[in-house]
Specification:
The chain has 17 helices and 27 strands. With about 675 residues, it is of the alpha/beta class. The chain has three domains: about 325 residues, Glycosidases (TIM Barrel, Alpha-Beta Barrel); about 200 residues, Class I glutamine amidotransferase (GATase) domain (Rossmann fold); about 60 residues, Immunoglobulin-like (Sandwich). The strands form four sheets. Strands 10, 11, 12, 13, 14, 15, 16, 17, 18, 19 and 20 form an eleven-stranded mixed sheet that branches. Strands 5-4-3-2-1-9-8-7-6 form a nine-stranded parallel sheet.
Length: about 675
């Protein structure tokens, strides 16, 4: 079994060489056993076309290896050198408004440019060949945080070829997209435009297919590098650093498929999400999503190490938060944690993206906090590495649906990610393990599957959902489910389309609510709630064909009409929630669902205390994390050893200090 990897992202090329040994010693003292290097060093590694300089990197690796620190190398293609880009402006990505980006940032390149592919092959081949047999190198990160759609002429040509392969004939494409609308029928492949934002509202089929095409383009570009690394370095792992749940530009399930495992970048608090308190459910959702991409443990390749910001500085992590956030990642499936970054940069766009050391290299409070964690990981890491999360609850996550809502939001306030997060948070607060699964994922391990806004439903998915429910599972559906076919055209059926028979209900009418409009829900099922709940954003007015009414609307012209229904199908059930509520609606319905499905919480605890578990064979490892800034107390169901407190025996209750972490195993 590989060890638990604990380390940091380091940029020796940005600091004097005489400093490297000092840094390596401090890293070793912090308990680090791995470092990521070189993912932004293309200009240093290849200062001129075909002229390579690996000597400096060899020396840096040698210094780290002397301290028994292993190396993950990044392919440096996210930030190309000026000598490549400036003579070839066609390499620069074009934004959706038709503007070509310029040099000076990162991810500036078009992922379909043949010259960029050629240059990529050259640098990756040279790196892989040079480090294939190096004893300190254990793996590779391809590029850095893939993303950004390109709308250049090269992409236009590649898109039309992609469409040819998908539809084979223009007649089929015209039929699927419904191009008779507005007289947009295509007689030649070259007539098909790109869905530029300056061109008004594109055909929904065109726009969705373009998003699919861009996602496939990055997957192909990743595979270009992956093939080289596999050829030269079959003994090394290969991964990529994803951007959690929030990022919506690529189909991450597809991007993850050929990698050995997923890595991702976890920043609970940055300049873009400035808040006094961090919602731990958001980071938990991101981690569970990353684990769900391959149903496999992951690494965090960039774990927050200080205030995050470019032109602005975010709230400084409070004492204990960095350690708490890192342990939360571990609790949700991390087998490796690397902090970003080692030392705060003195120049460049990320001067205010703080590392473990200050700008002047002082190892202050943040370093000491992580050094403490390093000592703990040396004691418990071997138990944690490779341990698994087991769940009987899943959220079905569709990038196809998310892309479709980017094309047509349906309502200005509707957001697929927000709806998903509401359900996740309600489950999270019940302290049950949660899996995030793909539309083609295996449903058999689960008792409860929630599929928010499943907008596009292929026939095979509908059939698998039917088998899941018929065999005893509970399925939850929400508004805007079953609305579109795979070409992003509205189905010629009563909604929820192909899922209507399964749900035992159809949508008689729907109401898209303005910001100053709302309705109310009243439950008719007395075992759920007698309270009234706000219905907002969207209201499906339901007509049961077989389902039982669970809640009704109380206002407007559809007062008294069904809003939530429950249908028995085979030995399972389908709950259709026909509106979008505030958090309290889901926090009321979800405990009821868990009771109905026979799913129990791991332990009960106050709000803000997270409890989750990993399993080493049949041995349960319990994580208790207090995200609150004040003490809390958790009742215990049996006696436990506290692994982070020298194996102390706990009985009856666990008293938690603010932002504290406990890892418990049952007393034998």
């Amino acid at each position: 079994m590989p060890p638990f990897y604990f380390g940091v992202d380091y940029y020796p090329e940005q600091w004097p060489e005489e400093r490297w040994a000092v840094d390596a010693q401090l890293m070793a003292e912090a308990g680090f056993n791995v470092v990521r290097l070189a993912e932004f060093a293309w200009a240093k590694l290849e200062p001129r076309e075909g002229k390579f300089d690996f000597d400096w990197l060899d020396r840096a690796i040698a210094i780290l290896a002397e301290r028994e620190i292993r190396i993950v190398l990044g392919t440096p293609t996210a930030s190309p050198p000026a000598w490549l880009m400036q003579p070839h402006p066609e390499l620069f990505r074009v934004t959706q408004d038709g503007r070509r980006v310029t040099f000076g940032n990162r991810r500036e390149y078009c992922p379909n440019q043949p010259l960029y592919h050629e240059s990529t092959r050259r640098i990756v081949n040279a790196l892989a060949a040079h480090y294939a047999a190096h004893p300190a190198v254990i793996g590779w990160q391809i590029d850095n945080e893939f993303g950004e759609r390109c709308y250049c002429e090269t992409c236009a040509h590649a898109f039309r070829n992609w469409l040819r392969a998908r539809y084979e004939s223009l007649d089929v494409l015209n039929e699927k997209w419904g191009t008779t609308f507005w007289s947009h029928t295509y007689g030649d492949w070259n007539e098909i435009p790109l869905p530029l934002s300056s061109g008004g509202s594109p055909n929904p089929g065109l726009a969705l297919d373009y998003f699919r095409f861009v996602s496939d383009s990055y997957i192909a570009y990743q595979e270009l590098q992956l093939d080289i690394l596999r050829e030269h370095c079959p003994q090394h792992f290969v991964t990529h650093n994803f951007m959690g749940f929030k990022y919506e530009g690529l189909n991450y399930f597809d991007l993850a498929r050929q990698l050995d495992f997923v890595a991702w970048d976890n920043y609970p608090r940055t300049q873009w999400n400035m808040q006094a308190e961090v919602d731990p459910a958001n980071a938990a959702l991101a981690a569970d999503t990353m684990r769900g991409l391959k149903q496999k443990n992951f690494w965090v390749m960039e774990q927050q190490a200080g205030s995050g910001g470019w032109d602005m500085v975010s709230v400084t992590p409070r004492p204990g938060e960095l350690r708490l956030w890192a342990y939360q990642s571990i609790a949700h499936g991390a087998d490796g944690i690397l902090f970003f970054r080692w030392r705060s940069a003195r120049y460049g766009a990320e001067e205010y993206w703080h590392g473990l050391l200050e700008h002047d290299a002082t190892p202050g409070r943040r370093y000491q906090e992580i050094k403490r964690m390093g000592g703990e990981i040396q004691k418990v890491g071997n138990l944690l590495a490779g341990s698994q999360i087991k769940s009987t609850v899943a959220l079905l996550y569709s990038y196809e649906a998310r892309f479709a809502f980017q094309v047509q939001a349906n309502n200005p306030r509707f957001n697929y990610a927000d709806q998903f997060q509401q359900f996740y948070a309600a489950l999270y607060h019940q302290r049950v393990p949660i899996d995030i699964i793909a539309p083609d994922g295996d449903l058999t391990p689960y008792r409860l599957v929630i599929a928010p806004a499943l907008h596009i439903v292929p026939d095979d998915l509908a059939a698998r959902l039917e088998r899941f429910v018929y065999s005893g599972g509970t399925l939850v559906m929400t508004p805007r489910s079953g609305v579109k076919d795979e070409a992003n055209a509205v189905v010629n059926q009563r909604l929820p389309g192909i899922l209507a028979a399964l749900s035992g209900v159809y949508v008689d009418e729907y109401d898209s609510l303005a910001p100053d409009m709302q309705n109310e829900l009243e439950f008719t099922a007395t075992d759920i709630s007698s309270d009234h709940f706000v219905a907002r954003i969207w209201c499906d007015i339901l007509k049961p064909t077989a389902a039982t009414v669970i809640a009704r609307y109380t206002q407007d012209y559809y007062a008294g009409q069904p809003a939530i229904t429950l249908n028995s199908y085979g030995t399972g059930r389908v709950l259709y929630i026909g509106t979008i509520g505030k958090d309290v609606l889901y926090e009321t319905v979800v405990p009821w669902l868990l009771r109905q499905a026979g799913i129990r919480s791991i332990l009960t605890a106050p709000r803000g205390v997270e409890i989750t578990e990993r399993w080493r064979d049949n041995r349960r490892i319990l994580f208790v994390l207090n995200h609150n800034g004040h003490p809390e107390s958790v009742p215990l169901d049996r006696s436990y050893h506290d692994l982070l407190d020298s194996g102390a025996i706990l009985e009856n209750k666990l008293v938690l200090a603010p932002r504290s972490v406990h890892i418990l195993v049952e007393q034998s």
